[in-house]
Amino acid sequence: MKNNNQTNLTVFGEETVFQGVLEYTDNLVITGKFEGTIKSSGNLEIAKTAVCTVDSMSAKDILIAGTVKGNISAESKIEMTSGSKISGDIATKKLRIADNVDFKGKVSMFDKVPDIDIFSVSGQEYKEAVQKLNEKESSEIEEKVDTESSIDA
Predict the structure, then answer these.
(1) Could you tell me how far CA 145 lies from the centroid of its own chain?
(2) What pLDDT, on the 0 to 100 scale, is given for residue 141?
(3) Which of 15, 32, 94, 115 is the most buried (most CB within 10 A)?
């Protein structure tokens, strides 16, 4: 994963086994085993040697080359590279799936994502948040059209 910004990069080595809730703000590469929940505003890379079993995994950008079992949410994009194995539902704005990826799950694509973790609320609560976001977008468009119409008059 590219690290263009001046942020920290943490690597969990192949011998590392982590269980629990992991929250971080920079960039993380997992090459070992992880079990639990990941919440991040930074980037996450699951290396080819990594095996992750998660309740939920959320980050800005997620690159998966290894094995992930559980639900995944990315604020910006998810990329699944050749040879990766993913079993779980995903939600993101952008998605790239290479050839030879073993993916089982549902995909939810969003133009704009509500500012809540999709996997920490009920389906109904998330639908309501998306609906409010869409209503807000519609009213902003209507206001813009009304403003443009009054300028033309």
Answers:
(1) 33
(2) 43
(3) 32
